[in-house]
Write a structure and sequence with these properties.
Elements: E1 3-7, H1 12-23, E2 27-32, H2 41-49, E3 53-57, H3 63-73, E4 77-80, H4 87-92, H5 94-114, E5 122-128, H6 155-174, E6 178-183, E7 186-187, H7 196-208, E8 215-217, E9 223-224, E10 227-228, H8 229-240, E11 248-250, E12 256-257, H9 258-268, E13 273-276, E14 283-286, E15 292-296, H10 314-320, H11 328-347
Parallel strand pairs: 1-2, 1-4, 2-3, 4-5, 5-6, 6-11, 7-10, 8-15
Antiparallel strand pairs: 9-12, 13-14, 14-15
The chain binds NADP nicotinamide-adenine-dinucleotide phosphate and guanosine-5'-diphosphate-alpha-D-mannose.
Length: 348
């Protein structure tokens, strides 16, 4: 039985990956942070959700705890998913973001070496399309590939770039089987409510059921290459099954604006949106009732924005045989229907 260790197991991707690896017959260990005992409510919830995962307490900032975990578990594969992952938040706390999202990667790599596992344990680093930055000059028409140039636009993106290059460096320096997945946005029913897609799908459900008046958003014109998280964790696993380590882009090859996501999400709940006004005064209005459902709140603007992300997954499709299964309308439908179900269940 193969053993896997997932950092960030409590996050969106961690949950999907733990389930996938369990179904593939792995013994799954998951790193969580904090001072939780078995009686802690969050620990209990995680245990209920993923009873097949051995939960291990370690912070990405704590090299000793990570080394102990590696020594005890001796995993065949390590998936480093833990990070401060919210781009907007990284502007508010750039130093912690650098420590966790950047240097934290080095801690995991060093823990593998200190445990003497660098020749046997395979390593996955969660790199990101945020490293490209989406500026006109470095934006290929056919989408970013593994060869495209980087120009991160947030403290998060800069920290991730350190994690990316230190992983490449450990591969080249110590012959580690270390691969980076450069993943474009992936969403779903496990997405945190602070990310725009889940914020929208939750608000649509609550507005539809009369539990919320409206939805405040920032930049509606940013475009993202959005896929389904469940499809992307399969790609992570495939990377570590290759004979040679390498870096791969996972993306859909399509890009859509926040505005389009809103329109489709409200439509899924039977509400058509008309847009009125411009700039910060723009509103999204229910086409039937005339009620304002979407407003702009400049608090959600970022000091520097990534305007457009579009990935080219040709290498992953060819080498890994990976392809996304759920398309953009399918993703929006899945999220809205999930949140409608959740909110209805709460109402009883
Ligand atoms: P997520 O839901 O934010 O999960 C991140 C996890 O990291 C959380 O469970 C968090 O723990 C944990 N964490 C944060 N700080 C930590 C620390 N100091 N020590 C230990 N654990 C810590 O992120 P995700 O969407 O699953 O993404 C997984 C990874 O892929 C992240 O590295 C992200 O940056 C990267 N990525 C994501 C996407 C995407 O579209 N989802 C795209 C490209 C790359 P708590 O639960 O306790 O807060
Ligand atoms: N979060 C948020 N909240 N974003 C908003 C809002 C809002 O109210 N209104 C507009 N947006 C815009 C943001 O300005 C950004 O352009 C876009 O929606 C997407 O924001 P997020 O959903 O927060 O995701 P992200 O693209 O910044 O980052 C996610 O994807 C990266 C991969 O490209 C995260 O998962 C990162 O961890 C990941 O690396």
């Amino acid at each position: 039985m193969k053993k896997a260790l997932i950092t960030g197991v409590a996050g969106q991707d961690g949950g999907h990956l733990a389930k996938l690896l369990h179904e593939k017959g792995y013994e799954v260990h998951g790193v969580i942070r904090g001072q939780m005992e078995a009686s802690h409510p969050r620990y209990k919830t995680l245990k209920q959700e993923m009873p097949f995962v051995n939960l291990v307490m370690a912070d990405l900032l704590d090299l000793a705890a990570l080394t102990r975990a590696l020594q005890e578990i001796q995993p065949d594969e390590v998936y480093n998913l833990a990070a401060i992952s919210h781009v907007g938040y990284s502007f508010r706390d750039p130093i912690l973001t650098a420590d966790v999202t950047g240097k934290g990667v080095l801690n995991v790599l060093e823990a593998i070496r200190l445990a003497g596992l660098e020749k046997t344990t395979r390593f996955y680093q969660a790199s990101t399309s945020e490293m490209f930055g989406g500026l006109d000059y470095n934006r290929p028409d056919t989408g970013y590939t593994e060869e495209a140039s980087f120009h991160p636009r947030s403290p998060y993106g800069v920290a991730k770039l350190y994690g990316h290059w230190i992983t490449c460096n450990y591969r080249e320096s110590y012959g580690m089987h270390a691969s980076c997945g450069i993943l474009f946005n992936h969403e779903g029913e496990r997405r945190g409510p602070e990310f725009v897609t889940r914020k929208i799908s939750k608000a649509v459900a609550r507005i539809k059921l009369g539990l919320q008046e409206d939805l405040e958003l920032g930049n509606l014109d940013a475009k993202r290459d959005w896929g389904y998280a469940g499809d992307y964790v399969e790609g992570m696993w495939r990377m570590l099954q290759q004979e040679q380590p390498a870096d791969y882009v996972l993306a859909t090859g399509e890009t859509h604006s926040i505005r389009e996501f809103c329109e489709l999400a409200f439509k899924e709940a039977g509400i058509n949106i008309n847009w009125q006004g411009n700039g910060v005064d723009e509103t999204g209005v229910d086409a039937t009732t005339g009620k304002v459902l979407i407003k702009i709140n400049p608090d959600f603007f970022r000091p520097a924005e990534v305007d457009l992300l579009l990935g080219n997954p040709a290498k992953a499709e060819k080498t890994l045989g990976w392809k996304r299964a759920i398309d953009f309308p399918g993703l929006v439908k899945l999220m809205v229907q999930h949140d409608l179900g959740l909110e209805e269940a709460k109402l009883g």
